[in-house]
Design goal:
Blueprint lengths: L7 E5 L5 H12 L21 E9 L2 E11 L2 E9 L8 H15 L4 E6 L3 H9 L3 E12 L18 E6 L4 H7 L2 E11 L2
Parallel strand pairs: 4-5
Antiparallel strand pairs: 1-2, 2-3, 3-4, 5-8, 6-7, 6-8
């Protein structure tokens, strides 16, 4: 599908989009709870049964918004959604989601979910599009001044500088008392059938 607003085109991702896709993703995540989730390449799958579908919104050759969805049978998960900060507020991520949902429904996918952190703009965006929160757990980062007592390491390595962990939601008070960076990770679910 293509759009006509100021040269904007919405279409499927192509491998030639990768450099621009990476820049858009990095800048789109910079002011979010995923600010340090930087990649040097777009995710690829080795197994033939894996299915990563992507959509981009482009102005000229520049990717200004993106949405990647991993499909596994009747379920799909949003792997990445981001909008370049200079192009926010134009409904681009919503337009990409509409393209994805239409294609996923046509393919018989029944559920689309997304895992996201306690980032108010992201949570509001998902809720406004009909996603419902169903599961929660913690993302805990240890480092940068946190007490790393009790963290082990092989003899060949120094003590950990930074670590990332999953933890149970019921341990949130303990985690927040010990570590400066703790996020509630949430599964947001949209039923497609």
């Amino acid at each position: 599908m293509t759009g006509s607003a100021a040269g904007l085109v919405i279409r499927r991702y192509a491998s030639t989009d990768e450099p621009s896709w990476l820049r858009c993703r990095a800048l789109g995540f910079l002011d979010s709870a995923y600010y340090d989730d930087v990649r040097r390449s777009r995710r690829q799958y080795a197994a033939p049964d894996d299915d990563l579908r992507g959509w981009v919104a482009c102005v000229g050759e520049e990717v200004v918004a993106l949405l990647d969805v991993e499909v596994d049978g009747l379920e799909a998960t949003i792997d990445t959604v981001a909008t370049h900060p200079d192009h926010r507020g134009r409904g681009l991520a919503t337009a990409l989601l509409a393209e994805a949902v239409a294609e996923l429904r046509a393919a018989g996918v029944a559920v689309l979910d997304a895992w996201t952190r306690d980032d108010p703009p992201a949570l509001e965006w998902y809720a406004a599009r009909g996603f419902v929160e169903e599961q929660h757990y913690l993302h805990v980062y240890a480092g940068d001044g946190d007490d790393l007592t009790g963290f082990g390491q092989p003899a060949q390595l120094s003590a950990p500088v930074r670590t990332f962990h999953h933890a149970r939601l019921e341990d949130e008070e303990w985690a927040r008392a010990r570590f400066a960076r703790v996020h509630v990770c949430r599964r947001c679910v949209l039923t497609l059938d």
